[in-house]
Amino acid sequence: MLEVSELTKSYHKVRGVKDLSFQVESGTAFGFLGPNGAGKTTTIRLLMGFMKPDLGSARIWGLDCWQDRAELKRIISYLPGELHFMEQFTGQEFLDLIEGMHGAHETIRKNQIDLLRILELDPSQGIRKMSKGMKQKLGIIAALMLDSPVLILDEPTSGLDPLMRKTFIELILEEKKRGKTIFMSSHHFSEIERTCERVGIIRDGELLAIQDIALLKQKERQTFDIEVGGEEDAEFLRQSGLTLYPLDHHKFTIQVEGEQELLWKTLAQIQVKRFQQGSLELEEAFMHYYHSSLRGDGT
């Protein structure tokens, strides 16, 4: 569905992106993670055909994102990271304009009405008077109402409150059920974790890794909360070489990176009263992965 091959773009003295290569399968969601300035928005602008790459290519549905950019607009719904509206319009006038540009289909109007209700937006208000969160809702509605098979979303929940972020996640999960292909950059790790099967990690314009989210969480740092039977067991645990964080008396948090053989050998030799594996948040896994790469521990 979406294929990027050795994609490169430079801006004079400012780094863009270099040698990006990845694929997004049809009907799946792909998350793009990285700090500000890492190259996420540049990648999206190249996918949208807003810029010509210096080297490499990007293709969606077999169409070249630069050479076939006009045709691609018929199959892509796009939500930019920085929204700019015609401030003199009301929300409804803006949505009507977008609808008219795409043929004013009955399906689009029905989707629009449903999305206005779900996101609790009054479209009669002037855009100039809307808050950032309201404008973000308007942008989401304009993108999703078109029912395009491909969604490209740049920081889609910026400015939304936690309740509306939850609602947005539910909308994206529904889009996936309908077979949509989604490319989404975000700073909110929870929404990537809940909506995407795979994630790309980008730093300074270069792709560090492509990982299945489940594998990324498994592969990196894991934590375990444990309570042992007594002081003798606690001392054995302290001398084991495991990374321990004391909690209270004979209670510890154990942190394990990579192989867990030492953990299980140690536990087999002591009395364990309570043992619970902690759930690793995607954010923690990403930050560990990111900083390990900065230190040169791996990619």
From TrEMBL:
Annotated PROSITE patterns: ABC_TRANSPORTER_1 (PS00211), ABC_TRANSPORTER_2 (PS50893)
Record has Transport as a keyword: yes
Matching Gene3D superfamilies: P-loop containing nucleotide triphosphate hydrolases
GO molecular function: ATP binding; ATP hydrolysis activity
Keyword annotations of the record: ATP-binding, Nucleotide-binding, Transport
Highest taxon of the lineage: Bacteria
UniProt xrefs under InterPro entries: AAA+_ATPase, ABC_transporter-like_ATP-bd, ABC_transporter-like_CS, ABC_transporter_ATP-binding, P-loop_NTPase
Ranges for domain ABC transporter: 2-229
Pfam families linked: ABC_tran
Family as reported in the entry's similarity comment: Belongs to the ABC transporter superfamily.
PANTHER family: ABC TRANSPORTER ATP-BINDING PROTEIN, ABC TRANSPORTER ATP-BINDING PROTEIN NATA
Protein name, entry field: ABC-type multidrug transport system, ATPase component
Phylogenetic classification of the source organism: Bacteria, Bacillati, Bacillota, Clostridia, Eubacteriales
